[in-house]
Design brief:
Helix content is 2%, strand content 37%. It is mainly β. The protein has a single domain, classed as Beta-galactosidase, Chain A, domain 5, CATH 2.70.98. The strands form 7 sheets. The protein has a 9-stranded antiparallel β-sheet with strand order 8-9-10-11-24-20-19-14-17, with no helix packed on it.
């Protein structure tokens, strides 16, 4: 959709050839306009949280729109998920392309600089959806985009995603404080519930007595991608054993936020009038680390005039014929 750059549906067969929609969302525009969960949307100017709703750049403090307590979450109250993007459809021999463009004015949600952003969706004949981001600015600023689809590989009405099997290309993760802001430490995943180096069910290590989950009620944490150098690498592999549907995610970003739909509420009604449910979907969000503008030891998200920010996220889909 050109509203919010939203991916409204992805239809994929299971191992029996039965097609089903594997992303949560709504049947009409009104549902997305009133949505507070960023379903399927482009997230920006800066994905995840900026602690205290402010950051300092070149000696100047910038105060941002706050929409998560005192934090700025996913770009503030009116982020890129609320933008009406200019759209152009292109068709090539081996892929279908949608190109979206948006200009965010200087001071939008408190961020400095007029920011020009292009997001390109390219769907290939090999069931690969590549989403490319490009941005430039007229003043020093920070940028950090991602996509926010809610995946349930079981399809509509399949229940929760706790039996989905997940593997992450990450030996380390970021611990957070009580406001879900990174402490600045980078810890090994070994011997912790954060260890997804070997594929296993998402539910396997969720322990509600563990302090790591006391606020988040599940996974809502950022992992550090192994050997990140800015190139596109595999970051996540998700499989639904029941349907055989498989999703592989690759990215050129240094982090990956895993969110297990901990706060999806049955009060919300999505496609086909189905109610959402806690753990009803999983989000795999390649991005800069949360609170990067306030964390000098994290990979930089600063963008200056004359520079171009570029990164890509790729979703690849296939079906595992094994039981």
């Amino acid at each position: 959709m050109n509203y919010g750059g939203i991916i409204q549906s992805i239809d994929l067969p299971d191992r029996s050839g039965i097609m089903d929609d594997i992303v949560l969302g709504f049947d009409d525009l009104n549902g997305y306009v009133n949505d507070g969960a960023y379903m399927g949307a482009v997230v920006g100017r800066f994905a995840n949280r900026i602690g205290g709703g402010s950051f300092e750049l070149d000696g100047q403090t910038h105060f941002l729109s706050t929409n998560d307590g005192q934090n700025c979450l996913h770009g503030g109250n009116v982020g890129f998920n609320r933008a009406l993007w200019a759209a152009e459809i292109l068709t090539l021999a081996d892929q279908e392309i949608l190109q979206l463009k948006h200009v965010s004015l200087d001071g939008d949600q408190g961020f400095p600089g007029e920011l020009h952003t292009t997001v390109t969706y390219a769907l290939s004949n090999e069931n690969r959806l590549k989403v490319s981001f490009k941005a430039w600015t007229d003043k020093p600023t920070v940028v950090g985009f991602t996509l926010h689809p809610y995946f349930n590989l079981g399809g509509r009405g399949a229940g929760n995603i706790l039996d989905h099997e997940l593997r992450l290309n990450a030996d380390h993760y970021l611990p957070v404080n009580g406001a879900t802001i990174p402490t600045g430490a980078i810890l090994p995943v070994a011997n912790s519930p954060m260890d997804f180096r070997e594929s296993h069910p998402i539910a396997q290590n969720i322990c509600y007595e563990d302090p790591k989950f006391s606020k988040t009620e599940g996974y809502d944490h950022n992992w550090v991608i192994n050997d990140w150098d800015g190139s596109c690498v595999d970051v996540a592999h998700l499989r639904d054993p029941a349907s055989g549907r498989v999703l592989k995610v690759s990215s050129s970003m240094p982090g990956l936020q895993l969110y297990t739909g901990n706060h999806l509420s049955a009060d919300g009604i999505g496609k086909d009038r189905r109610r959402f449910q806690k753990y009803g979907a999983v989000c795999l969000e390649p991005q800069f680390f949360p609170d990067t503008p306030n964390q000098p030891d994290f990979p930089s998200a600063v963008l200056r005039p004359g520079e171009v920010h570029e990164h890509a996220i790729c979703f690849e889909f296939h079906v595992d014929q094994g039981a």
